Amino acid sequence: MHPVMDRFEKTNSQFEAAIAECRELFSQKLHDYRASWRILRPQSLTDQLFIKAKRIRQLEMTGTTLVGEGIRPEFVGLVNYGIVGLIQLELGCADTVDMSNDEALQHYDRHAAEALALMKRKNHDYDEAWRNMRVSSYTDLILTKIERVKEMEDLTLRGDTAKVSEGVDANYMDIINYSVFGLIKLSE
Question: If the chain, 188 residues long, is cut into consecutive pieces of 10 residues, what is the mean pLDDT of each piece?
């Protein structure tokens, strides 16, 4: 096999393994809580993403945790909440849990597949540049994406729309993909 294709295939395999890890936790949480996240309004979901990314940055900067959990679980949370965000964008928020666990997993799998497809396209065009980045850069880029989402949400609340933005969904996809890159790098 061609060396470039080997690199891309390795990335694809690592990406799929990281998503499988995230999906397993998502499935376990569905068992315990069902799709309780269906009640989250967009702003609440964005704030949840912010909390997770901010905690990663704090751990990166201080190297200490008082609750005994490291960076990896937060990246898993960012992947899962990013996918929840895509589901919520598609369906809107609900007042009650209005889908079965199987339906939630079907939505999860579809959006995870879309994130993988996007990563493959971008990874080809950027020639695996992410591999030469620091994990802390993923964190900063994720926080930037979250700030952009907050601004777009605030514009919408004021009755305005973004002019040149890729949209909230594109930012969620980037958050998912940067988080998966973080998971891969932390495993190497």
Answer: 73 96 98 98 96 96 84 97 97 97 98 95 92 97 97 89 85 97 95
Q: Which residues of 58-71 are buried (b: 16+ CB within 10 A; e: fewer)?
A: ebeeeeeeeeeeeb
C-alpha dist (Å) from residue 49 to 4, 13, 171: 34, 26, 12
Of the candidates 6, 28, 14, the residue with the CA atom closest to the CA atom of residue 186: 14
pLDDT of residue 5: 59
| 146 neighbors 179 (Cβ within 8 angstroms) | no
Check: pTM over 0.85? Answer yes or no: yes
CA 31/CA 138 separation, integer angstroms:
30
Kindly report the CA angle at 20 between 15 and 23, in degrees rounded to 5?
A: 125
Cα–Cα distance list, 22 to 3, 37, 67 (Å): 29, 16, 21
Please name which of 125, 116, 103, 128 lies closest in space to residue 8, comparing C-alpha atoms. 128
How far is residue 180's CA from residue 175's CA, in Å, rounded to a whole number?
A: 9
Buried b (16+ CB within 10 A) or exposed e, 108-132: beebbeebbeebeeebeeeeeebee
What is the per-residue pLDDT for 81? 98
